[in-house]
Q: What sequence folds into this?
């Protein structure tokens, strides 16, 4: 059987408002907890920033926190030091590996690090071909603009090489600060009002409206994928890399009992296209540490696990009892 394409989307600063007891609307619910997918809480190592630590954990299967003070500098100091990775394992199975990042190529040490862990094609915002408009994009870091461009790159790569693809895509839309409005005033008026009624805080309302736009963009993208690739099987994983700093304001305002793990909780969701319904159990799934998300993606895609991923699978099963 042919292997499915695997698309992994990291959603910048996105978490589930229900962690703080706040309500959500159906479009957000379907994004965070897709009816036809698997979903759950994701435990991450960071709060408020350092997205690359979540990227590192997902792609290497190692917790960035285990590197202590060096964890913030893993993309610089880790180049050439990590020989087992999710993209390398997929490449060994015949996958074409591809990164699309919402940052410019010179951001931190992204290009060198991603090359060193086995991602062959690395496309940054200053590489996207027209009609992508970099100046327009950088005014808001819009998911709608970025993910459309990322999907075009993915489609172009598939037309050049029909092998199964691994696409890792990094968004930036919900990055703080949440003190300025990034969506046009006439858009999402009722959703902003819904958020303000749930919690009278302008920064939370801005976070929520950006979350709604991300959810709407994802629904549209999913339809585009289905229309453009009716015959390709795909497994799509999306997750939040960390909570934004603004979440501390929420915690104070809602006065929940103290829970030191709450601020380190985001979400993950796994969906499929053109795959048999019985290939993946749907519904709420186990809480996951982010270092295990890559292993779970391989399992859900029905791929053979190498010795290291097989070991991680058994470790996770044993630790969940």
A:
């Amino acid at each position: 059987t042919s292997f499915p394409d695997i698309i992994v989307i990291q959603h910048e600063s996105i978490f589930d408002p229900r962690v703080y007891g706040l309500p959500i609307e159906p479009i957000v619910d379907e994004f965070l907890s897709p009816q036809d997918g698997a979903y759950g809480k994701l435990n991450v190592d960071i709060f408020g920033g350092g997205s690359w630590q979540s990227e590192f954990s997902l792609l290497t299967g190692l917790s960035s926190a285990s590197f202590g003070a060096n964890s913030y500098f893993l993309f610089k100091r880790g180049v050439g030091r990590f020989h087992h990775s999710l993209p390398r394992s997929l490449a060994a199975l015949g996958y074409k590996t591809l990164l699309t990042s919402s940052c410019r190529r010179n951001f931190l040490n992204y290009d060198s690090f991603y090359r060193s862990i086995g991602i062959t094609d690395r496309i940054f915002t200053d590489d996207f071909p027209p009609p992508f408009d970099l100046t327009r994009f950088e005014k808001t870091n819009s998911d709608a603009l970025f993910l459309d461009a990322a999907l075009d790159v993915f489609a172009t790569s598939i037309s050049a090489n029909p092998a199964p693809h691994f696409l890792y895509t990094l968004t930036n839309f919900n990055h703080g600060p949440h003190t300025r409005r990034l969506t046009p005033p006439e858009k999402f008026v009722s959703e902003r009002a819904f958020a303000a009624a749930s919690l009278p805080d302008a920064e939370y309302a801005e976070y929520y409206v950006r979350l709604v736009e991300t959810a709407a963009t994802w629904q549209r993208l999913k339809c585009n994928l289905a229309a453009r690739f009716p015959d390709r099987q795909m497994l799509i994983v999306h997750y939040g890399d960390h909570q934004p700093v603004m979440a501390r304001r929420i915690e104070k305002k809602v006065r929940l009992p103290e829970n030191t793990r709450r601020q380190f909780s985001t979400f993950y969701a796994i969906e499929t296209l053109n795959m048999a319904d019985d290939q993946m159990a749907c519904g709420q799934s186990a809480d996951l540490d982010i270092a295990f998300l890559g292993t779970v993606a391989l399992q859900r895609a029905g791929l053979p696990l190498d010795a290291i991923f097989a070991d991680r699978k058994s470790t996770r099963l044993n630790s969940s009892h």
Residues 233 and 275 are 6 Å apart (CA to CA). The chain is about 40% helix and 15% strand. Strands lie at 5-11, 38-43, 96-101, 121-123, 165-170, 234-240, 265-273, 283-284, 288-289. Residues 202-228 form the longest helix (27 residues).
